[in-house]
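Module 6 notes. Inverse folding takes a fixed backbone as the condition and produces residue identities as the prediction. Think of it as a translation problem where the source language is geometry and the target language is the twenty amino acids. Below is one complete input and output pair. Work through it position by position during the lab.
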């Protein structure tokens, strides 16, 4: 045996951990050297009994206005068109370049009516009549806040825990930490819904569902609404399944030889992705064939549920995915960035999501899945009490406001109710502030993970979804 062969046959520390990642021995070693085990990619599993086994994140890209949805502010009716410039100067609040040069900052009241609903007495806008019917099943948080004032960094913080790119997304962390419940489908699936509001919706990046420094197999898999759900899933012309299986087996043998020689974990990732693609040839067509759904189900989600790519169809698909034990499903619905023409565009956006969001929660509930499925709804920051530009009888707009915004969650061990309070202009939080990091810690907690203990050593740091700054689980919101 020559020197090169001896080098390739040697088992280094990294390869030892990787090759030993089965059996009782590694469990014992992991308990003794937990940090080392995490660094080598050994699955840690749950830290305590989870309340939720899976989650659906309804992501409203562009930042819905809290003033027209869940945070009723009657004071704005009295102050309508009052210039807030002096207050803004005294507060030292950051302004975006879109409004910083305005001569005046007129307060603008919501054009839409609010009413209280349910036993919780939650205020909900007339734009969300179906959502209003389920307030007693919702955990409404009116006191969320964030660090970023512009969309890209705010969304990156919301979905990856950091405004710097290259970090794993929430779904990727859950995939890495908990593993798969269905070997024939990805652990993390992304759906992109069409919108009927702004026709130039906020752009989004695959970084929001990427795996960052984690192995690529933990990245979200986007299901397309038109054509093949996943590209390259079908066999090429002239190649049947048996031949593809033979080709894949031979390719895996070559990849295994490469892995044995080099020890690169990305080689294993590719092998697993090829195998997943082969299994998805059977599982995905079954998933996307809605022929077994009842007419009553389509009626519950609304007429749009029969149209591919709509938010309603995406919600129905999300239920089918988690029904098949997909761990995390994220639906992106863009178009919520109403700097102008807010009354018209926001009404369309709310109509897109209102009935389907309600139907998703009811569908999960009647199937006995809501208790262990966490549903999350919200955007990346809030909107301003003052108008961007002028105010007319029919139209106005609102700029970005990171100091306070509203989100809601349902199921998965969340306690129904209305939490947190903002001041009379929804400018600052008065009680129970919750940061985006607290939201992340809570999501992980409900899935059985201690956010302080799920980490990966990368670039000399123990990297976590919640980062290095303080984050706490929102325990008052839990059952």
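Target side of the pair, the amino acids:
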């Amino acid at each position: 045996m020559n020197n090169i062969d001896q080098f390739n046959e040697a088992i280094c520390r990294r390869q030892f951990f990787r090759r030993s990642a089965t059996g009782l021995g590694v469990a014992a070693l992991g308990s003794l050297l937990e940090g080392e085990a995490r660094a080598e990619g050994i699955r840690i599993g749950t830290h305590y009994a989870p309340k939720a086994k899976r989650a659906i994140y309804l992501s409203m890209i562009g930042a819905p206005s809290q003033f027209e949805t869940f945070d009723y502010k009657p004071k704005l009716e009295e102050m309508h068109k009052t210039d807030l410039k002096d207050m803004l100067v005294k507060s030292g609040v950051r302004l975006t370049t879109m409004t910083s040069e305005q001569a005046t900052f007129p307060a603008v009241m919501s054009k839409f009516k609010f009413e209280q609903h349910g036993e919780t007495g939650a205020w909900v806008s007339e734009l969300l009549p179906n959502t209003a019917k389920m307030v007693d099943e919702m955990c409404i948080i009116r006191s969320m806040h964030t660090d970023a004032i512009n969309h890209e960094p705010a969304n990156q913080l919301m979905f990856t825990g950091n405004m710097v790119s290259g970090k794993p997304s929430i779904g990727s962390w859950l995939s890495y930490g908990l593993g798969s419940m269905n070997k024939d489908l990805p652990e993390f699936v992304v759906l992109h819904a069409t919108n009927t509001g702004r026709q130039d919706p906020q752009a989004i990046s695959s970084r929001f569902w990427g795996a960052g420094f984690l192995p690529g197999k933990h990245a979200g898999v986007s299901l397309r609404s038109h054509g093949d759900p996943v590209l390259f899933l079908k066999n090429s012309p002239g190649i049947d399944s048996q031949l593809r299986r033979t080709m894949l087996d031979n390719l895996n043998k070559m990849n295994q030889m490469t892995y044995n020689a080099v020890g690169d974990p990305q080689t294993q990732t590719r092998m697993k992705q090829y195998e997943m693609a082969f299994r998805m040839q059977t599982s995905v067509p079954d998933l996307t064939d809605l022929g077994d759904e009842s007419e009553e189900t389509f009626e519950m989600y609304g007429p749009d549920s029969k149209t591919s790519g709509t938010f309603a169809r995406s919600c129905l698909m999300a239920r089918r995915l988690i029904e098949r034990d997909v761990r995390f499903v994220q639906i992106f619905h863009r178009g919520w960035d109403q700097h102008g023409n807010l009354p018209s565009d926001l009404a369309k956006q709310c109509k897109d999501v209102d009935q389907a969001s309600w139907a998703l929660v009811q569908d999960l509930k009647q199937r006995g899945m809501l208790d262990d499925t966490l549903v999350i709804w919200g955007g990346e920051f809030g909107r301003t009490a003052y108008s961007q530009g002028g105010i007319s009888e029919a139209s106005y707009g609102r700029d970005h406001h990171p100091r306070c915004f509203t989100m809601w969650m349902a199921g998965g061990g969340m306690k129904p109710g209305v939490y947190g309070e903002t001041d009379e202009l929804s400018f600052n939080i008065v009680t129970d502030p919750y940061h985006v990091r607290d939201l992340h810690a809570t999501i992980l907690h409900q899935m059985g993970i201690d956010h302080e203990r799920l980490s990966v050593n990368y670039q000399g740091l123990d990297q976590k979804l919640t980062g290095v700054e303080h984050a706490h689980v929102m325990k008052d919101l839990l059952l």
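Reference fact for the lab report: The chain is about 35% helix and 15% strand.
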